[in-house]
Specification:
heterodimer, A: 493 residues, mainly alpha, two-stranded antiparallel ribbon, 21 helices, 78% helix, globular, B: 205 residues, 6 helices, 72% helix
Chain lengths: 493, 205
């Protein structure tokens, strides 16, 4: 199992290795996709080996993987695969048109692979300090992706991203410090005291005062990475300015890694402090995010910003689901993580194709997508309805589960509020996208930015793969995945 | 809006006096790490102490000064979004707040931690304040380093230190972070002529 765990982390480095060896964009992207596919395969293998078995542990707790980490590894590796597939024709087209120079292409693949590796590694450590180190490392790697295009606008977004996120994660470090301190009555060896399985096992002996402070700081800190309001201000800029496949990585992978960190702290806090305090914290941040996300989606404008605010909203939904708690709430939260990640990857990869063809990121400049580019237009429309929670896609099922979990808690106010906000988000999001998709395309029809028909075919691959997976999740949850979700929900408590 | 001349000691920490203050702060930290090294007979802590002094105390401030101030000829004014007196008062209030929240019940009386943790909380808050009120991107970067120092100060007194690998990793992150931020600041500066966050207005809503 250790070999598998190491392979997952190292496989995405295939892209950087190829790019640094001097390959052009297409070859590097293919290598990146192969690496991501290997990582995904290993994640699935690791999950099947972990099923019903003891968690993987090693190196003083620096290496730790249970079914919860396995589930997030699966999500992140899957998103990396979709984004790498999306990069094949997107980056090659940008290279051909001269928008990206050879150095920028090299930079893109180096940091793309590094970003994926650091995120996957952060899911495999049991040490909360190392978790901080890896999450901060992934911030830095992805900042280079955000600022890749080098305009004043993208540099500004990258600066905002790196400074706000770094400050956020530093606050999370302070939180980690207080959690560490809360265990000092146990007099453990310092390596051990910071590993979360140890903290969870000895939860009863933790000092509640400093644990409470530590949990709050950790939620605020890692919440900055997740994009929970009011710490979300970097998110729309970074998502709008990054190259589209990199936006998919930010929205569908990075935010989930932050959520994973919060879940680990939640498990410890829940074991010592009971449900009330963590629930209040998560529900407040969660509802704030949903409100902010839904309201800002009403504004028309840049469609990548629209998707970004939708991510804020969805992260809020996941936080609310964690706040509702119970097996149902946790199950719904994890299912939401996976289905949102798939839908958002499809949306951002499709938005890359749209912005290459129409040469704009403004929704008002895009008309008649379905007539001009049927595959991309269709995928955009389907993924839109998927992400908004229409049946028969995965998000519908997870949101239904979350609302049920809310009603099971007793008070109907929160789930009803959630439903109302989902309605607002539906209206705002669908209004913009249907206007983009329908109608007649502009004259003359936008030219294809791709070199040959093969590249056009490749653009469809991640869209179809992602939508197919979403559809499967909506209709039927495979028994293996169901077992993993239940086991993971039990970890949180 | 208040703008101070570069000769004022209250100017951004990029003045030589400012760099000296930073140096002093880092030296104190390194000293603290050193003392705990004596207490714990740990060679790793000594390595960290020396690294802290060399990189955070000397290399980063001087490199920042060279690259950002000399080469890019940044205006050394202390543009702030609040008046000087307001921000001084806010700083005082934050320090008092830090003592209020960390004093009772959280920490055992009479230990070193009881004295230092309120201080480190105050350092964190003041660093964050600097990031909020200063308009200069460079000042925001330094604010982040101050916050980081506050956390380190807390770590040293509260739990001796984080495990060595973690501590070394945090260190690496800070160095890489500063490098990346400097690249962005110089890129932005070239494009905007002056790296001032007030002009970062294009992305909104």
């Amino acid at each position: 199992m250790t070999v598998l765990a190491i392979l997952i982390v190292l496989a995405p480095l295939a892209g950087p290795a190829t790019a640094l060896a001097g390959a052009r964009a297409r070859a590097s992207a293919v290598a990146q996709a192969v690496g991501a596919a290997v990582a995904l395969g290993c994640a699935i293998a690791l999950l099947t080996q972990l099923a019903g078995a003891r968690p993987l542990q090693g190196w003083d707790g620096f290496l730790y993987a249970d079914s919860l980490s396995g589930f997030f590894l699966l999500t992140v590796a899957g998103v990396t695969l979709l984004a790498a597939l999306g990069s094949i024709s997107y980056i090659a087209a940008q290279e051909d048109s001269g928008d990206l120079g050879p150095f920028q292409v090299k930079l893109y693949f180096t940091f793309f692979g590094l970003f994926a590796t650091l995120m996957l590694a952060s899911l495999e450590t049991g040490n909360l300090g190392l978790l901080f180190v890896l999450v901060e490392g992934s911030t830095l790697a992805s900042a280079a992706l955000v600022g890749l295009e080098g305009h004043a606008r993208s540099l500004e977004a990258a600066w905002k991203y790196v400074i706000i996120s770094s400050l956020g994660v530093t606050i999370a470090l302070a939180g980690t410090l207080f959690v560490f301190y809360s265990a000092s009555a146990l007099h453990p060896a310092s390596n051990l005291a910071l590993t979360w399985p140890y903290l969870l096992a000895h939860a009863a002996a933790l000092a509640p005062q400093s644990l409470r402070l530590g949990f709050l700081l950790a939620v605020v800190g890692y919440g900055t990475k997740v994009g929970l309001a009011p710490m979300h201000t970097w998110l729309p800029d970074a998502h709008a300015e990054a190259p589209s496949p990199a936006s998919a990585m930010l929205s569908a992978a990075l935010l989930n890694v932050g959520m994973y960190a919060i879940i680990r702290f939640l498990a410890i806090a829940h074991a010592r402090l009971g449900g009330t305090y963590p629930r209040a914290v998560l529900l407040s941040f969660g509802f704030a995010s949903i409100v902010i996300g839904a309201l800002f989606m009403v504004r028309k404008g840049n469609f990548k910003r629209l998707f970004a605010y939708s991510s804020v909203e969805h992260m809020g939904i996941i936080a609310v689901a964690l706040g509702f708690g119970g097996i149902l709430g946790l199950y719904g939260a994890l299912l939401q993580v996976l289905s949102h990640a798939l839908a958002k990857s499809v949306l951002f990869v499709a938005s890359g194709d749209v912005s290459l063809r129409y040469k704009t990121r403004e929704a008002a400049g895009v008309r008649g997508l379905l007539a001009a580019v049927p595959v991309t237009g269709g995928a955009l429309l389907l993924a839109t309805f998927a992400v908004l929670g229409s049946p028969p896609f995965g998000v519908f099922l997870s949101e239904l589960t979350i609302v049920r979990a809310g009603f099971a808690r007793g008070s109907p106010i929160f789930p009803l509020l959630l439903l109302a906000l989902l309605g607002v988000a539906f209206f705002a999001f669908a209004r913009t996208i249907t206007a983009m998709v329908t109608g007649s395309p502009p004259e003359p029809a936008p030219a294809s930015p791709y070199r040959d028909p093969a590249a056009v075919a490749v653009t469809a691959a991640p869209l179809i793969l992602g939508l197919a997976a979403l559809l499967v999740l909506g209709l039927w949850i495979p028994a293996g995945l169901d077992a993993v979700l239940r086991q993971s929900a039990a970890v949180i408590g | 809006m208040q703008s101070l001349s570069a000769s004022s000691t209250a100017g951004v920490l990029l003045d030589l006096s400012g760099a000296a203050i930073l140096l002093l702060a880092f030296a104190c930290l390194a000293f603290a790490a050193g003392t705990s090294a004596v207490a714990f007979h740990s060679i790793e802590l000594w390595i960290l102490a020396v690294l802290t002094l060399l990189i955070k105390g000397l290399a980063i401030p001087f490199a920042a000064r060279r690259v950002l101030v000399r080469r890019l000829a940044l205006k050394r004014d202390a543009a702030m979004s609040t008046g000087l007196s307001t921000s001084l008062l806010a700083g005082g209030a934050l320090t008092a707040f830090a003592y209020l929240v960390t004093r009772p019940a959280l920490l055992p009386h009479g230990t070193a931690a009881a004295a230092v943790v309120p201080l480190s909380t105050a350092v964190i808050l003041l660093g964050a304040l600097a990031m909020v009120v200063r308009r200069h991107t460079v000042a925001q970067l330094i604010g982040w380093l101050i916050v980081e120092n506050g956390v380190f100060l807390g770590a040293i007194t509260l739990v001796a230190t984080f495990p060595f690998i973690v501590e070394a990793g945090i260190f690496l992150d800070i160095v890489a972070g500063v490098l990346i931020m400097v690249v962005f600041v110089s890129g932005l500066t070239r494009q905007l002529a002056e790296a001032s966050a007030t002009e970062l207005r294009e992305l909104r809503g």
